[in-house]
Amino acid sequence: MELLGRFWWWPVVLVLVHFGNKESDCCEWEGVKCNITTGRVIQLTLNWMVSRSEESGGGRYFNASYFLPFKDLQYLDLSSNLISGWIPNEGFDKFSALSKLEVLHLDYNNFNNSVLSSLSRIPSLKELYLGSNNFNGSIPFQGFESLSLLSKLEVLHMDANDFNNSILSSLSGIASLKELDLSNNNLNGSIHIQEFKAFSNLEDLYLNGNEINDFSKTKDSNILSKLQLLDLSQTKISARILESLVAFPSLKTLYLAYNNLEGPFTNKASIPSRAAQLDSSLP
Ligand SMILES: *[C@@H]1O[C@H](CO)[C@@H](O)[C@H](O)[C@H]1NC(C)=O
Ligand SMILES: *[C@@H]1O[C@H](CO)[C@@H](O)[C@H](O)[C@H]1NC(C)=O
Ligand SMILES: *[C@@H]1O[C@H](CO)[C@@H](O)[C@H](O)[C@H]1NC(C)=O
Ligand SMILES: *[C@@H]1O[C@H](CO)[C@@H](O)[C@H](O)[C@H]1NC(C)=O
Ligand SMILES: *[C@@H]1O[C@H](CO)[C@@H](O)[C@H](O)[C@H]1NC(C)=O
Ligand SMILES: *[C@@H]1O[C@H](CO)[C@@H](O)[C@H](O)[C@H]1NC(C)=O
């Protein structure tokens, strides 16, 4: 907490706030985008605002209330700022007042599971980027279940954290999801398609960079029937995978690069015929 207030960009935000109803004066600034009709700020890109050399170990905390004057904000990018959390009572739950906020980039910070319940109080969110933070899939899971309150959420990126297979059951309330990125985590072993039962609208699924060796599907299930893109590159997947892929009726793009696909590989006909784009290191 000793670094409280030491972001040099906080004053920048305050200056923006100070403009009040003259927001249009700052519309030309880098990282600021306004609605041309209303002159009000709709996008703020405040990433890489903290230089690595300033880092002194304690983590950085921010005050969500600083953003509240931007009532029309739709897009906020706070990625790559080494943020660990918020100062007391000034967390993401304050963003519930930003009723137009749809896209929130928090990737490349130091957030952990403790922020999840407050993130779930931003009902307007459609895209949430949480990659490369300190999240993990261990107890308490309650944090992830609370994300199911985000009933408009379509894109969720949770790549490069520390999740294991348990993350799938803890996310299972978010039926609105169309894109889920769980790449570069610690998922391992065999993943049964049944785990995705609740993700009925999922179109793009990224599981690359995990130690998965099987992705099995039962014949009669109607799970992941809208899946169009599946990234299984750099996993430990075996050639047997091709048999289970037949069951994805909507699959168009399949990434299988950087795998050791060994074994009987003669039945290429089992690749779904609609898989128009097949990127792989097929022998
Ligand atoms: C800009 O504001 C006008 C008036 O409120 C609105 O109709 C329009 O959709 C907005 N445009 C964007 C890109 O948000
Ligand atoms: C957070 O920011 C708001 C708005 O500027 C301010 O009123 C509040 O006192 C700040 N909270 C803390 C703990 O500094
Ligand atoms: C999680 O983040 C909160 C807020 O920054 C911090 O107080 C807590 O110590 C962190 N927990 C772990 C296990 O690092
Ligand atoms: C996972 O995160 C929680 C909360 O942030 C923490 O208490 C726990 O120690 C972490 N577990 C592992 C295995 O890193
Ligand atoms: C995931 O990790 C947590 C603790 O780190 C553990 O309790 C849980 O059993 C793990 N789940 C799986 C499927 O390995
Ligand atoms: C997956 O990871 C868990 C915990 O990390 C371990 O207990 C289990 O043996 C692993 N399973 C496989 C198939 O590697």
Automatic annotation (TrEMBL):
Signal peptide (from-to): 1-24
Gene3D superfamilies attached to this UniProt entry: Ribonuclease Inhibitor
Keyword Cell division appears in the UniProt entry: no
Record-linked InterPro entries: DNA_repair-toleration, Leu-rich_rpt, Leu-rich_rpt_typical-subtyp, LRR_dom_sf
Keywords for the protein's UniProt record, in alphabetical order: Leucine-rich repeat, Repeat, Signal
Stretches that traverse the bilayer: none
Keyword Iron-sulfur: no
Name of protein: Uncharacterized protein
Organism: Quercus lobata
